[in-house]
Amino acid sequence: MEFYAEWRQRGDSYNNGYGNGHTLSQSESVQKMKEVEKTDDFTKYERGGINLTAYHKSVAPGVTECRTIIENKSDKEIYIELLSSFALKKIKADKIHRATSFWSAEGKLLSQELTDLNFERSWANHGYRIEKFGQIGSLPVRKWFPFLVLEDSETGHFIGIQVYCASSWQIEIFRNTDDISVMGGLADRDFGAWTKKLAAGENFETPRAMIAEGNSLEEVCDKLVKAQKPRIAKVDQDLPVIFNEYCTTWGDPSFDNLKKTAERLDGTDVRYLVIDCGWYKPEGIENWFDAAGDWIPSKKLFPDGIKAAADMIRSHGLIPGIWFEMENVGTVAKAFNQTDHLLKRDGYPVTVGARRFWDMRQKWVWDYLDEHVLGLLKECGMGYLKVDYNECIGQGVDGEESYGEGLRKAVEGSQNYFRHLAKEMPELVIENCASGGHRLEPSMMELVSQASFSDAHEAVDIPLVAANLHRLIRPEQSQIWAVMRANADLDRIKFVLTSAFLGRFCLSGEIFDLNEQQWGAVKEAIGFYGRIKHIIKDGFTKIIRTNVKDYLKPKGYQAVLRELGNEALLIVHTFEDGANPPIDDLLKGWKVKETFGSELNGAFRGRVFLLSK
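Request: output the structure for the sequence above.
Response:
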Protein backbone atom coordinates (compact mmCIF):
# COMPACT_ATOMS: atom_id res chain seq x y z
CA MET A 1 0.00 0.00 0.00
CA GLU A 2 1.30 3.44 -0.93
CA PHE A 3 -0.02 6.89 0.03
CA TYR A 4 -0.34 9.61 -2.58
CA ALA A 5 -2.77 12.44 -3.54
CA GLU A 6 -5.55 12.86 -6.09
CA TRP A 7 -6.55 16.29 -7.39
CA ARG A 8 -7.72 18.02 -10.52
CA GLN A 9 -7.17 21.57 -11.72
CA ARG A 10 -9.76 23.07 -14.02
CA GLY A 11 -8.57 23.04 -17.62
CA ASP A 12 -6.46 19.88 -17.37
CA SER A 13 -7.12 16.75 -19.37
CA TYR A 14 -9.45 14.13 -17.86
CA ASN A 15 -8.72 10.45 -17.27
CA ASN A 16 -8.63 8.66 -20.62
CA GLY A 17 -9.73 5.17 -19.56
CA TYR A 18 -13.46 5.69 -20.28
CA GLY A 19 -13.78 7.27 -16.86
CA ASN A 20 -14.82 10.83 -17.68
CA GLY A 21 -18.19 11.41 -16.05
CA HIS A 22 -17.55 8.61 -13.55
CA THR A 23 -14.32 9.90 -12.03
CA LEU A 24 -12.03 12.91 -11.84
CA SER A 25 -9.14 10.78 -10.62
CA GLN A 26 -5.98 10.06 -12.63
CA SER A 27 -6.26 13.32 -14.58
CA GLU A 28 -3.42 15.31 -16.12
CA SER A 29 -3.09 17.14 -12.78
CA VAL A 30 -1.97 13.92 -11.10
CA GLN A 31 0.03 12.56 -14.01
CA LYS A 32 2.19 15.69 -14.30
CA MET A 33 2.79 16.49 -10.64
CA LYS A 34 6.34 15.85 -9.46
CA GLU A 35 7.25 14.33 -6.10
CA VAL A 36 9.78 16.65 -4.45
CA GLU A 37 10.00 15.34 -0.87
CA LYS A 38 8.87 12.25 1.02
CA THR A 39 9.06 11.37 4.72
CA ASP A 40 7.19 8.94 6.96
CA ASP A 41 4.66 11.70 7.71
CA PHE A 42 4.08 13.44 4.37
CA THR A 43 4.72 13.50 0.64
CA LYS A 44 5.18 16.82 -1.20
CA TYR A 45 4.43 17.40 -4.86
CA GLU A 46 4.90 20.39 -7.16
CA ARG A 47 3.54 21.34 -10.54
CA GLY A 48 3.73 24.76 -12.16
CA GLY A 49 3.59 26.84 -8.99
CA ILE A 50 1.09 24.56 -7.25
CA ASN A 51 2.35 22.78 -4.13
CA LEU A 52 0.52 19.76 -2.78
CA THR A 53 1.31 18.08 0.55
CA ALA A 54 -0.31 14.74 1.33
CA TYR A 55 0.00 14.05 5.06
CA HIS A 56 0.00 10.43 6.23
CA LYS A 57 1.03 10.48 9.87
CA SER A 58 0.92 7.46 12.17
CA VAL A 59 -1.24 8.30 15.21
CA ALA A 60 -1.52 4.84 16.80
CA PRO A 61 -0.27 1.34 16.00
CA GLY A 62 -1.75 0.46 12.62
CA VAL A 63 -3.59 3.80 12.28
CA THR A 64 -2.65 6.65 9.93
CA GLU A 65 -4.21 10.12 9.81
CA CYS A 66 -4.44 11.62 6.32
CA ARG A 67 -5.18 15.10 5.01
CA THR A 68 -4.04 17.18 2.07
CA ILE A 69 -3.01 20.84 1.77
CA ILE A 70 -2.80 22.60 -1.58
CA GLU A 71 -0.96 25.94 -1.95
CA ASN A 72 -1.17 28.27 -4.91
CA LYS A 73 2.36 29.67 -5.23
CA SER A 74 1.70 30.96 -8.74
CA ASP A 75 0.79 34.54 -9.67
CA LYS A 76 -2.73 33.72 -10.90
CA GLU A 77 -5.90 32.23 -9.46
CA ILE A 78 -6.73 28.60 -10.08
CA TYR A 79 -9.82 26.44 -9.65
CA ILE A 80 -9.65 22.93 -8.26
CA GLU A 81 -12.41 20.39 -8.83
CA LEU A 82 -11.07 17.46 -6.81
CA LEU A 83 -8.77 17.26 -3.79
CA SER A 84 -8.55 13.99 -1.87
CA SER A 85 -8.24 13.72 1.89
CA PHE A 86 -6.52 10.39 1.31
CA ALA A 87 -5.42 8.34 -1.67
CA LEU A 88 -3.97 4.82 -1.61
CA LYS A 89 -2.60 2.68 -4.40
CA LYS A 90 -0.96 -0.72 -4.88
CA ILE A 91 -3.59 -2.42 -2.72
CA LYS A 92 -4.32 -6.14 -2.93
CA ALA A 93 -8.01 -6.81 -2.19
CA ASP A 94 -10.83 -9.01 -3.41
CA LYS A 95 -13.65 -7.96 -1.04
CA ILE A 96 -15.09 -4.71 0.27
CA HIS A 97 -17.25 -3.99 3.30
CA ARG A 98 -19.47 -0.91 3.56
CA ALA A 99 -22.00 0.36 6.10
CA THR A 100 -25.37 1.19 4.58
CA SER A 101 -27.83 3.52 6.26
CA PHE A 102 -31.35 4.81 5.93
CA TRP A 103 -33.68 6.37 8.49
CA SER A 104 -34.11 3.99 11.45
CA ALA A 105 -31.83 1.40 9.82
CA GLU A 106 -28.33 2.66 10.51
CA GLY A 107 -25.12 0.80 9.79
CA LYS A 108 -26.24 -2.46 8.15
CA LEU A 109 -23.11 -4.17 6.82
CA LEU A 110 -22.85 -4.82 3.09
CA SER A 111 -19.99 -7.18 2.18
CA GLN A 112 -19.24 -7.82 -1.49
CA GLU A 113 -16.66 -9.61 -3.54
CA LEU A 114 -15.16 -7.37 -6.19
CA THR A 115 -16.12 -9.89 -8.85
CA ASP A 116 -19.77 -9.24 -7.94
CA LEU A 117 -19.16 -5.61 -8.90
CA ASN A 118 -17.74 -6.64 -12.30
CA PHE A 119 -14.45 -5.32 -11.01
CA GLU A 120 -11.94 -7.70 -12.57
CA ARG A 121 -9.28 -5.91 -14.60
CA SER A 122 -9.69 -6.13 -18.35
CA TRP A 123 -7.66 -8.56 -20.45
CA ALA A 124 -5.57 -5.62 -21.67
CA ASN A 125 -5.19 -3.67 -18.39
CA HIS A 126 -7.20 -0.93 -20.09
CA GLY A 127 -10.45 0.75 -19.14
CA TYR A 128 -10.96 1.78 -15.53
CA ARG A 129 -13.24 -0.16 -13.22
CA ILE A 130 -14.81 2.38 -10.85
CA GLU A 131 -17.02 2.10 -7.78
CA LYS A 132 -17.86 5.55 -6.42
CA PHE A 133 -20.19 6.14 -3.51
CA GLY A 134 -20.95 8.89 -1.03
CA GLN A 135 -23.57 11.33 0.18
CA ILE A 136 -24.72 14.75 -1.01
CA GLY A 137 -25.97 17.32 1.48
CA SER A 138 -25.94 18.05 5.20
CA LEU A 139 -26.90 14.56 6.43
CA PRO A 140 -23.54 12.80 6.03
CA VAL A 141 -24.89 9.39 7.02
CA ARG A 142 -27.55 8.77 4.40
CA LYS A 143 -27.50 5.57 2.34
CA TRP A 144 -23.82 5.18 3.29
CA PHE A 145 -21.54 5.89 6.21
CA PRO A 146 -18.24 7.54 5.16
CA PHE A 147 -16.54 4.20 5.74
CA LEU A 148 -14.92 1.40 3.76
CA VAL A 149 -12.95 -1.75 4.52
CA LEU A 150 -10.94 -3.59 1.88
CA GLU A 151 -10.09 -7.24 2.46
CA ASP A 152 -7.49 -9.52 0.94
CA SER A 153 -8.96 -12.94 1.71
CA GLU A 154 -5.78 -14.72 0.64
CA THR A 155 -3.56 -13.02 3.23
CA GLY A 156 -6.21 -12.02 5.80
CA HIS A 157 -5.13 -8.38 5.59
CA PHE A 158 -7.75 -5.64 6.08
CA ILE A 159 -7.58 -1.88 5.40
CA GLY A 160 -10.25 0.30 7.02
CA ILE A 161 -11.09 3.91 6.12
CA GLN A 162 -13.21 6.63 7.74
CA VAL A 163 -13.66 10.10 6.27
CA TYR A 164 -14.24 12.97 8.72
CA CYS A 165 -16.68 15.09 6.73
CA ALA A 166 -20.14 16.35 7.76
CA SER A 167 -21.03 17.77 4.33
CA SER A 168 -20.96 16.06 0.92
CA TRP A 169 -18.30 13.34 0.75
CA GLN A 170 -17.19 10.55 -1.55
CA ILE A 171 -15.08 7.40 -1.58
CA GLU A 172 -13.91 5.94 -4.87
CA ILE A 173 -12.38 2.54 -5.63
CA PHE A 174 -10.77 2.07 -9.04
CA ARG A 175 -8.43 -0.20 -10.96
CA ASN A 176 -7.12 -1.00 -14.41
CA THR A 177 -4.48 -3.52 -13.29
CA ASP A 178 -4.35 -6.24 -10.64
CA ASP A 179 -3.82 -3.60 -7.96
CA ILE A 180 -6.61 -1.55 -6.39
CA SER A 181 -6.56 2.20 -5.75
CA VAL A 182 -8.93 4.05 -3.43
CA MET A 183 -9.36 7.72 -2.60
CA GLY A 184 -11.88 9.91 -0.84
CA GLY A 185 -12.78 13.13 0.91
CA LEU A 186 -14.94 16.05 -0.15
CA ALA A 187 -17.37 15.25 -2.94
CA ASP A 188 -15.83 16.57 -6.16
CA ARG A 189 -17.25 18.72 -8.95
CA ASP A 190 -18.87 15.78 -10.75
CA PHE A 191 -20.42 14.24 -7.65
CA GLY A 192 -20.96 17.15 -5.26
CA ALA A 193 -20.92 20.32 -7.40
CA TRP A 194 -17.74 21.38 -5.60
CA THR A 195 -15.19 23.76 -7.10
CA LYS A 196 -12.72 25.75 -5.02
CA LYS A 197 -11.03 28.97 -6.16
CA LEU A 198 -7.53 29.63 -4.89
CA ALA A 199 -6.17 33.12 -5.44
CA ALA A 200 -2.42 33.59 -5.74
CA GLY A 201 -0.90 32.86 -2.33
CA GLU A 202 -3.95 31.05 -0.93
CA ASN A 203 -4.11 27.51 0.39
CA PHE A 204 -6.80 24.99 1.27
CA GLU A 205 -6.83 22.02 3.63
CA THR A 206 -9.11 19.01 3.24
CA PRO A 207 -11.06 17.22 5.96
CA ARG A 208 -9.20 14.39 7.67
CA ALA A 209 -9.42 10.67 7.01
CA MET A 210 -8.22 7.75 9.12
CA ILE A 211 -6.70 4.58 7.67
CA ALA A 212 -6.36 1.44 9.81
CA GLU A 213 -4.74 -1.90 9.06
CA GLY A 214 -5.36 -5.21 10.80
CA ASN A 215 -6.19 -8.89 10.58
CA SER A 216 -9.99 -8.79 10.79
CA LEU A 217 -12.94 -6.55 10.01
CA GLU A 218 -13.66 -6.02 13.70
CA GLU A 219 -10.01 -5.19 14.45
CA VAL A 220 -9.74 -2.40 11.88
CA CYS A 221 -13.15 -1.06 12.90
CA ASP A 222 -12.04 -0.97 16.54
CA LYS A 223 -8.89 0.92 15.55
CA LEU A 224 -10.90 3.44 13.54
CA VAL A 225 -13.42 3.97 16.32
CA LYS A 226 -10.74 4.38 18.98
CA ALA A 227 -8.97 6.93 16.76
CA GLN A 228 -11.99 9.23 17.21
CA LYS A 229 -11.25 11.76 19.97
CA PRO A 230 -14.57 13.18 21.17
CA ARG A 231 -15.15 16.12 23.49
CA ILE A 232 -17.00 14.37 26.31
CA ALA A 233 -18.09 16.60 29.17
CA LYS A 234 -16.55 15.64 32.51
CA VAL A 235 -19.93 14.87 34.07
CA ASP A 236 -20.64 12.36 31.28
CA GLN A 237 -17.38 10.44 31.28
CA ASP A 238 -18.61 7.70 33.64
CA LEU A 239 -21.49 6.76 31.27
CA PRO A 240 -24.48 7.73 33.45
CA VAL A 241 -28.01 6.68 32.50
CA ILE A 242 -30.27 9.16 30.68
CA PHE A 243 -34.03 9.60 30.74
CA ASN A 244 -35.49 11.35 27.69
CA GLU A 245 -39.22 11.99 27.81
CA TYR A 246 -39.86 11.96 24.02
CA CYS A 247 -41.43 8.50 23.95
CA THR A 248 -43.54 9.48 26.95
CA THR A 249 -45.28 12.49 25.38
CA TRP A 250 -44.33 12.32 21.66
CA GLY A 251 -43.69 16.04 21.35
CA ASP A 252 -46.09 17.28 24.01
CA PRO A 253 -44.00 17.67 27.19
CA SER A 254 -45.41 19.42 30.23
CA PHE A 255 -44.39 20.40 33.72
CA ASP A 256 -46.86 17.95 35.26
CA ASN A 257 -45.60 15.00 33.23
CA LEU A 258 -41.98 15.83 33.99
CA LYS A 259 -42.79 16.08 37.69
CA LYS A 260 -44.25 12.57 37.73
CA THR A 261 -41.20 11.29 35.90
CA ALA A 262 -38.73 13.09 38.17
CA GLU A 263 -40.45 11.73 41.27
CA ARG A 264 -40.11 8.19 39.91
CA LEU A 265 -36.42 8.70 39.08
CA ASP A 266 -35.54 10.32 42.41
CA GLY A 267 -32.99 8.18 44.23
CA THR A 268 -32.04 6.07 41.21
CA ASP A 269 -28.75 6.12 39.32
CA VAL A 270 -30.33 8.02 36.40
CA ARG A 271 -28.45 11.32 36.02
CA TYR A 272 -30.28 13.32 33.32
CA LEU A 273 -33.92 14.14 32.62
CA VAL A 274 -34.21 15.60 29.13
CA ILE A 275 -37.16 17.68 27.89
CA ASP A 276 -37.57 16.78 24.24
CA CYS A 277 -39.33 18.59 21.39
CA GLY A 278 -42.60 20.53 21.61
CA TRP A 279 -41.94 22.72 24.67
CA TYR A 280 -42.11 25.83 22.41
CA LYS A 281 -45.39 25.13 20.56
CA PRO A 282 -47.52 28.28 20.07
CA GLU A 283 -51.15 28.26 21.17
CA GLY A 284 -53.25 26.33 18.65
CA ILE A 285 -50.31 24.53 17.02
CA GLU A 286 -50.15 20.83 17.79
CA ASN A 287 -47.31 19.75 15.49
CA TRP A 288 -43.97 20.25 17.22
CA PHE A 289 -42.14 19.79 13.91
CA ASP A 290 -43.61 22.88 12.24
CA ALA A 291 -43.05 25.21 15.19
CA ALA A 292 -39.26 24.99 15.59
CA GLY A 293 -37.25 28.19 15.31
CA ASP A 294 -38.65 30.93 17.57
CA TRP A 295 -37.97 29.06 20.83
CA ILE A 296 -40.59 30.78 22.98
CA PRO A 297 -41.68 28.41 25.79
CA SER A 298 -45.34 27.39 25.73
CA LYS A 299 -47.39 29.02 28.49
CA LYS A 300 -49.88 26.17 28.26
CA LEU A 301 -47.33 23.41 28.77
CA PHE A 302 -45.05 25.34 31.13
CA PRO A 303 -47.12 28.01 32.91
CA ASP A 304 -44.20 29.08 35.09
CA GLY A 305 -41.60 28.80 32.35
CA ILE A 306 -38.86 26.33 31.52
CA LYS A 307 -36.67 27.43 34.43
CA ALA A 308 -39.31 26.27 36.90
CA ALA A 309 -39.23 22.84 35.26
CA ALA A 310 -35.43 22.76 35.31
CA ASP A 311 -35.38 23.75 38.98
CA MET A 312 -37.93 21.05 39.80
CA ILE A 313 -35.80 18.44 37.97
CA ARG A 314 -32.71 19.48 39.93
CA SER A 315 -34.65 19.26 43.19
CA HIS A 316 -34.98 15.52 42.52
CA GLY A 317 -31.23 15.08 42.11
CA LEU A 318 -31.26 15.09 38.31
CA ILE A 319 -29.51 17.23 35.70
CA PRO A 320 -32.06 18.96 33.42
CA GLY A 321 -31.69 18.83 29.66
CA ILE A 322 -33.58 20.26 26.71
CA TRP A 323 -34.04 19.69 22.96
CA PHE A 324 -33.30 22.22 20.21
CA GLU A 325 -33.17 22.00 16.44
CA MET A 326 -31.08 25.13 16.36
CA GLU A 327 -29.79 25.07 12.77
CA ASN A 328 -33.23 24.81 11.12
CA VAL A 329 -36.63 26.54 11.26
CA GLY A 330 -40.21 25.32 10.81
CA THR A 331 -43.05 26.69 8.72
CA VAL A 332 -45.10 28.34 11.48
CA ALA A 333 -42.13 30.03 13.16
CA LYS A 334 -41.57 33.72 12.46
CA ALA A 335 -37.97 32.77 11.76
CA PHE A 336 -39.17 30.90 8.66
CA ASN A 337 -39.57 34.27 6.93
CA GLN A 338 -36.20 35.73 7.94
CA THR A 339 -35.04 35.04 4.40
CA ASP A 340 -32.00 37.34 4.54
CA HIS A 341 -30.51 34.92 7.03
CA LEU A 342 -31.58 31.60 5.54
CA LEU A 343 -29.67 29.46 3.07
CA LYS A 344 -30.62 29.96 -0.58
CA ARG A 345 -30.07 28.18 -3.85
CA ASP A 346 -30.53 30.14 -7.07
CA GLY A 347 -31.75 33.03 -4.92
CA TYR A 348 -34.61 31.07 -3.33
CA PRO A 349 -34.68 29.87 0.28
CA VAL A 350 -33.88 26.17 0.42
CA THR A 351 -37.24 24.78 1.55
CA VAL A 352 -37.56 21.05 2.28
CA GLY A 353 -41.06 20.16 3.40
CA ALA A 354 -41.56 22.04 6.67
CA ARG A 355 -37.93 23.08 7.02
CA ARG A 356 -35.64 25.94 6.06
CA PHE A 357 -32.04 26.35 7.19
CA TRP A 358 -30.21 29.13 8.99
CA ASP A 359 -27.11 30.42 7.20
CA MET A 360 -24.62 29.40 9.87
CA ARG A 361 -21.91 31.46 8.14
CA GLN A 362 -23.59 34.67 9.36
CA LYS A 363 -22.79 36.51 12.60
CA TRP A 364 -26.45 37.61 12.74
CA VAL A 365 -27.52 33.97 12.98
CA TRP A 366 -25.00 33.25 15.72
CA ASP A 367 -26.25 36.27 17.67
CA TYR A 368 -29.84 35.04 17.26
CA LEU A 369 -28.91 31.58 18.54
CA ASP A 370 -26.88 33.05 21.40
CA GLU A 371 -30.01 34.88 22.52
CA HIS A 372 -32.58 32.14 22.01
CA VAL A 373 -30.59 28.92 22.55
CA LEU A 374 -27.49 29.69 24.60
CA GLY A 375 -29.38 32.30 26.60
CA LEU A 376 -32.08 29.82 27.62
CA LEU A 377 -29.52 27.14 28.47
CA LYS A 378 -27.69 29.52 30.81
CA GLU A 379 -30.79 31.13 32.30
CA CYS A 380 -32.37 27.78 33.16
CA GLY A 381 -29.18 26.08 34.33
CA MET A 382 -29.42 23.33 31.76
CA GLY A 383 -26.68 20.72 31.90
CA TYR A 384 -27.66 18.76 28.80
CA LEU A 385 -28.45 19.85 25.25
CA LYS A 386 -29.98 17.54 22.65
CA VAL A 387 -29.36 18.97 19.17
CA ASP A 388 -31.65 17.56 16.50
CA TYR A 389 -31.49 18.07 12.73
CA ASN A 390 -34.42 16.84 10.67
CA GLU A 391 -33.83 17.56 6.97
CA CYS A 392 -31.10 17.80 4.35
CA ILE A 393 -29.86 20.94 2.58
CA GLY A 394 -29.09 18.99 -0.58
CA GLN A 395 -26.51 19.70 -3.27
CA GLY A 396 -25.42 23.12 -2.11
CA VAL A 397 -26.18 26.80 -1.59
CA ASP A 398 -25.44 30.27 -2.90
CA GLY A 399 -22.70 32.55 -1.63
CA GLU A 400 -19.46 30.86 -2.67
CA GLU A 401 -17.74 29.93 -5.93
CA SER A 402 -19.75 26.70 -6.19
CA TYR A 403 -22.80 25.07 -4.62
CA GLY A 404 -20.61 22.43 -3.00
CA GLU A 405 -18.29 25.00 -1.43
CA GLY A 406 -21.32 26.91 -0.13
CA LEU A 407 -22.57 23.75 1.53
CA ARG A 408 -19.14 22.97 2.98
CA LYS A 409 -18.85 26.42 4.55
CA ALA A 410 -22.43 26.34 5.86
CA VAL A 411 -21.81 23.01 7.59
CA GLU A 412 -18.46 24.28 8.85
CA GLY A 413 -20.39 27.19 10.39
CA SER A 414 -22.67 24.72 12.19
CA GLN A 415 -19.73 22.77 13.56
CA ASN A 416 -18.07 25.97 14.74
CA TYR A 417 -21.24 26.86 16.61
CA PHE A 418 -21.07 23.52 18.44
CA ARG A 419 -17.54 24.48 19.47
CA HIS A 420 -18.82 27.88 20.58
CA LEU A 421 -21.44 26.27 22.83
CA ALA A 422 -18.83 24.01 24.41
CA LYS A 423 -16.55 26.99 25.05
CA GLU A 424 -19.37 29.01 26.62
CA MET A 425 -20.58 26.08 28.75
CA PRO A 426 -17.67 23.64 29.24
CA GLU A 427 -19.67 21.23 31.42
CA LEU A 428 -22.59 21.07 28.98
CA VAL A 429 -23.36 17.56 27.74
CA ILE A 430 -24.20 17.83 24.02
CA GLU A 431 -26.09 15.10 22.18
CA ASN A 432 -25.89 14.77 18.40
CA CYS A 433 -29.24 13.75 16.91
CA ALA A 434 -30.35 14.02 13.28
CA SER A 435 -33.66 12.20 12.92
CA GLY A 436 -31.70 9.55 14.75
CA GLY A 437 -28.37 8.69 13.17
CA HIS A 438 -27.98 10.87 10.06
CA ARG A 439 -24.94 12.71 11.48
CA LEU A 440 -23.07 9.81 13.08
CA GLU A 441 -19.82 10.64 11.30
CA PRO A 442 -16.50 11.20 13.07
CA SER A 443 -16.10 14.97 12.77
CA MET A 444 -19.56 15.48 14.32
CA MET A 445 -18.99 12.81 16.96
CA GLU A 446 -15.81 14.55 18.10
CA LEU A 447 -17.84 17.66 19.00
CA VAL A 448 -20.29 15.95 21.35
CA SER A 449 -20.61 13.70 24.38
CA GLN A 450 -23.30 11.42 23.00
CA ALA A 451 -25.43 10.71 19.95
CA SER A 452 -28.87 9.29 19.37
CA PHE A 453 -28.15 5.97 17.69
CA SER A 454 -31.41 5.85 15.70
CA ASP A 455 -35.07 6.81 15.62
CA ALA A 456 -35.91 3.10 16.01
CA HIS A 457 -37.54 4.01 19.31
CA GLU A 458 -39.56 0.85 19.89
CA ALA A 459 -38.69 -1.25 16.84
CA VAL A 460 -37.72 -4.90 17.25
CA ASP A 461 -34.46 -4.30 15.36
CA ILE A 462 -33.00 -1.99 18.03
CA PRO A 463 -30.25 -4.45 19.05
CA LEU A 464 -29.31 -5.01 15.40
CA VAL A 465 -28.84 -1.31 14.70
CA ALA A 466 -27.08 -0.76 18.03
CA ALA A 467 -24.59 -3.54 17.30
CA ASN A 468 -23.88 -2.20 13.80
CA LEU A 469 -22.71 1.07 15.29
CA HIS A 470 -19.90 -0.62 17.24
CA ARG A 471 -18.01 -0.62 13.93
CA LEU A 472 -18.56 3.09 13.35
CA ILE A 473 -18.73 5.16 16.55
CA ARG A 474 -17.61 4.72 20.14
CA PRO A 475 -20.21 2.68 22.09
CA GLU A 476 -19.70 5.06 25.03
CA GLN A 477 -21.34 7.74 22.83
CA SER A 478 -24.07 5.61 21.24
CA GLN A 479 -27.33 6.32 23.06
CA ILE A 480 -29.79 3.40 22.84
CA TRP A 481 -33.51 3.86 23.46
CA ALA A 482 -35.07 1.67 26.17
CA VAL A 483 -38.76 2.62 26.08
CA MET A 484 -40.86 1.25 28.93
CA ARG A 485 -44.57 0.47 28.55
CA ALA A 486 -46.87 -0.69 31.34
CA ASN A 487 -48.68 -3.06 28.94
CA ALA A 488 -45.46 -4.91 28.04
CA ASP A 489 -44.72 -8.32 29.51
CA LEU A 490 -41.50 -8.90 31.41
CA ASP A 491 -39.73 -10.53 28.47
CA ARG A 492 -40.42 -7.47 26.31
CA ILE A 493 -39.22 -5.19 29.12
CA LYS A 494 -35.97 -7.15 29.39
CA PHE A 495 -35.52 -7.37 25.60
CA VAL A 496 -35.54 -3.57 25.50
CA LEU A 497 -33.38 -3.10 28.59
CA THR A 498 -30.70 -5.53 27.39
CA SER A 499 -30.50 -3.65 24.08
CA ALA A 500 -29.28 -0.61 26.02
CA PHE A 501 -26.17 -2.56 27.09
CA LEU A 502 -24.92 -2.16 23.50
CA GLY A 503 -24.18 1.52 24.19
CA ARG A 504 -25.45 4.36 26.38
CA PHE A 505 -28.53 3.51 28.43
CA CYS A 506 -31.44 5.88 27.67
CA LEU A 507 -34.80 5.28 29.32
CA SER A 508 -38.10 6.67 28.08
CA GLY A 509 -41.81 5.93 28.36
CA GLU A 510 -44.37 6.02 31.18
CA ILE A 511 -42.13 4.72 33.93
CA PHE A 512 -44.55 6.08 36.53
CA ASP A 513 -47.16 3.54 35.33
CA LEU A 514 -44.92 0.47 35.64
CA ASN A 515 -45.87 -2.12 38.23
CA GLU A 516 -43.51 -3.23 40.98
CA GLN A 517 -42.12 -6.17 39.00
CA GLN A 518 -41.52 -4.09 35.86
CA TRP A 519 -39.90 -1.24 37.77
CA GLY A 520 -37.81 -3.77 39.66
CA ALA A 521 -36.44 -5.05 36.34
CA VAL A 522 -35.54 -1.49 35.33
CA LYS A 523 -33.68 -0.87 38.58
CA GLU A 524 -31.92 -4.23 38.32
CA ALA A 525 -30.79 -3.37 34.78
CA ILE A 526 -29.52 0.06 35.85
CA GLY A 527 -27.54 -1.48 38.69
CA PHE A 528 -26.01 -4.17 36.46
CA TYR A 529 -25.17 -1.55 33.82
CA GLY A 530 -23.24 0.39 36.44
CA ARG A 531 -21.07 -2.67 37.11
CA ILE A 532 -20.20 -3.36 33.46
CA LYS A 533 -20.02 0.07 31.81
CA HIS A 534 -16.20 0.08 31.89
CA ILE A 535 -16.37 -2.71 29.29
CA ILE A 536 -18.70 -0.63 27.12
CA LYS A 537 -16.33 2.32 27.42
CA ASP A 538 -12.95 0.68 26.88
CA GLY A 539 -13.58 -2.80 25.46
CA PHE A 540 -13.03 -4.36 22.03
CA THR A 541 -16.02 -5.73 20.14
CA LYS A 542 -14.48 -8.97 18.94
CA ILE A 543 -17.58 -10.65 17.52
CA ILE A 544 -20.86 -9.43 16.03
CA ARG A 545 -22.70 -12.55 14.91
CA THR A 546 -26.16 -12.57 13.37
CA ASN A 547 -28.13 -14.51 10.80
CA VAL A 548 -30.83 -11.84 10.50
CA LYS A 549 -31.47 -10.49 6.99
CA ASP A 550 -34.76 -8.57 7.28
CA TYR A 551 -34.70 -5.79 9.89
CA LEU A 552 -38.44 -5.09 9.66
CA LYS A 553 -39.38 -8.72 10.33
CA PRO A 554 -36.22 -10.17 11.84
CA LYS A 555 -35.76 -13.92 12.04
CA GLY A 556 -32.87 -15.51 13.87
CA TYR A 557 -30.57 -14.20 16.58
CA GLN A 558 -27.69 -11.86 17.34
CA ALA A 559 -24.74 -12.24 19.70
CA VAL A 560 -22.19 -9.52 20.46
CA LEU A 561 -19.00 -10.25 22.40
CA ARG A 562 -17.06 -7.27 23.77
CA GLU A 563 -13.85 -8.01 25.67
CA LEU A 564 -11.71 -6.01 28.09
CA GLY A 565 -8.75 -7.78 29.66
CA ASN A 566 -10.00 -10.74 31.69
CA GLU A 567 -13.64 -9.68 31.40
CA ALA A 568 -16.22 -9.66 28.64
CA LEU A 569 -19.83 -8.84 27.91
CA LEU A 570 -21.92 -11.21 25.83
CA ILE A 571 -25.19 -9.60 24.72
CA VAL A 572 -27.65 -11.96 23.01
CA HIS A 573 -31.02 -11.28 21.41
CA THR A 574 -33.45 -13.65 19.76
CA PHE A 575 -36.00 -12.81 17.11
CA GLU A 576 -38.66 -14.86 15.34
CA ASP A 577 -37.52 -18.50 14.99
CA GLY A 578 -34.40 -17.62 16.97
CA ALA A 579 -34.96 -19.47 20.25
CA ASN A 580 -32.02 -21.28 21.87
CA PRO A 581 -29.30 -19.63 19.78
CA PRO A 582 -25.93 -21.38 19.35
CA ILE A 583 -23.71 -19.43 21.76
CA ASP A 584 -21.83 -22.21 23.58
CA ASP A 585 -18.68 -21.48 21.57
CA LEU A 586 -18.82 -17.84 22.70
CA LEU A 587 -19.06 -18.89 26.36
CA LYS A 588 -16.24 -21.43 26.05
CA GLY A 589 -13.22 -20.49 28.14
CA TRP A 590 -15.19 -17.97 30.21
CA LYS A 591 -16.89 -18.14 33.59
CA VAL A 592 -20.36 -16.63 33.83
CA LYS A 593 -20.07 -14.11 36.64
CA GLU A 594 -23.48 -12.43 36.43
CA THR A 595 -26.43 -12.21 34.03
CA PHE A 596 -29.49 -10.08 33.39
CA GLY A 597 -32.44 -10.74 31.11
CA SER A 598 -34.71 -13.56 30.01
CA GLU A 599 -34.08 -17.19 29.24
CA LEU A 600 -33.30 -17.44 25.52
CA ASN A 601 -35.84 -20.20 24.88
CA GLY A 602 -38.30 -18.03 22.95
CA ALA A 603 -38.57 -15.28 20.37
CA PHE A 604 -37.72 -11.66 21.18
CA ARG A 605 -35.73 -12.37 24.31
CA GLY A 606 -32.59 -10.61 25.50
CA ARG A 607 -29.86 -11.62 27.93
CA VAL A 608 -26.57 -10.05 29.02
CA PHE A 609 -23.73 -12.17 30.39
CA LEU A 610 -20.82 -10.73 32.38
CA LEU A 611 -17.93 -13.11 31.81
CA SER A 612 -14.53 -13.49 33.44
CA LYS A 613 -11.44 -15.64 32.96
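The mean pLDDT is 98.
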